[in-house]
Amino acid sequence: MFDLERWQEIFETIGKNKLRTFLTGLSVASGIFILVILLGFSSGIQKGVKTQFEQDATNRVSVWTRVTTKSYKGLNPGRYIQMRNSDFEAINNKYEANLEYKTAIYNIWGSQVTYKGETGNYRLEGANPDQQLIENASMASGRFISQDDMDESRKIAVIGYIIQKDLFKGKDPIGEIISIFGVNFKVVGVYTDPGGEREEGRVFVPLPTAQIAFAAGDRVRSLAYTVKMAENFDEAVAQSVAISENIEQDIKARHTIAPDDRSAVNVNNTLEEAKKIYSLIAIIRSVFWFIGIFTIIAGVVGVSNIMLIIVKERTKEIGIRKAIGALPGSIIALILQEAIFITAVAGFIGLFAGVGLLQLISPMVDNDFIKSPQVDFNTALATVVILIVAGAVAGYIPARRAAHIKPIDALRDE
């Protein structure tokens, strides 16, 4: 039931102690405000990292080779390890049950691509049809490389969206002929990539076509796979790591490389990296919650302290109330109502200030590691509700003390 007189008393008490009430409310509001900002930036960090991993398949295993650094079985260090089609086929056959998508890649950096007088330098990649799924690329128009293109070594090309903008100036490139180092290719598709311009400046052609057109023989520069995911994330990581290590040892065995030579064969496992990063994000989020919660606790303690002071200042008044018949429950309700009111108002001010600031700065914060920091409003609202409950608990101790004041002692109080 709404009690107008009780509310008048509360506002009268607040009016007599404006500065004290303001400072207490400020500590509560700042606690919620800080927590909202910290959670927002935690979310932004998570989005930034997730975007980085979305550039390629999260469960990707990449293999490339360099120069040996150790002598082994009579062979000197300094040998460049050249992978070939046979390496790709051997890995595919051995781990077929564990691999989802697979491709061998022959790439040429800075390939000169020409279309009707327009020229640009882009990365050429001879690849298999699975490259689209491994790269997490989407077709803006046309199609990607097909198995028929591979089998017939067709001179077709799939270009990135940036190349379309640079060379075709808004014209539909599907069916047009581009020249790569003087070799003509028919454009059959345009792709986009979550990695943006850096990943869209490539030309994909069938691997056999690239090897024939550019005199590569059966050489490949790298291998890329995605590993079939287990239902449990930790199991998937363990399985992916085991396959990565086995592939590395297989390549070393095929090319007579010392097992402990860490430079000759390089294997990158994005799933293992993802686990490390997401674990770090979870730790950061926990630290942010820890800081925010203790800031809020400081505010709640402030509410409890101000209510104790109010009870002390109103001891004589409370004694008179009890002497004329006021019940302990009504006194407790009065003190609790004031504590909850201060906590709720301050909490919602902090909430809306924090959410408002995040909405304001969110479009301005967009880099590789933090993207659009925002907080889930329901989470923030639930935090305020918990804060109000905590405020009620904080107010209960002084309220209970007020309810147990003996009228005769209160009337003697100076």
From TrEMBL:
Keyword rRNA-binding: no
GO annotations of cellular component type: plasma membrane
GO MF terms, alphabetically ordered: transmembrane transporter activity
Homology family: Belongs to the ABC-4 integral membrane protein family.
Localization annotation: Cell membrane
Domain MacB-like periplasmic core: 21-239
UniProt superkingdom: Bacteria
Keyword Transferase assigned: no
InterPro entries listed in its UniProt record: ABC3_permease_C, MacB_PCD, Macrolide_Exporter_MacB
Membrane-spanning residues: 21-41, 287-311, 331-357, 377-397
Membrane topology: Multi-pass membrane protein
Keywords from the named record: Cell membrane, Membrane, Transmembrane, Transmembrane helix
Protein name as it appears in the record: ABC transporter permease
Domain ABC3 transporter permease C-terminal stretches: 289-407
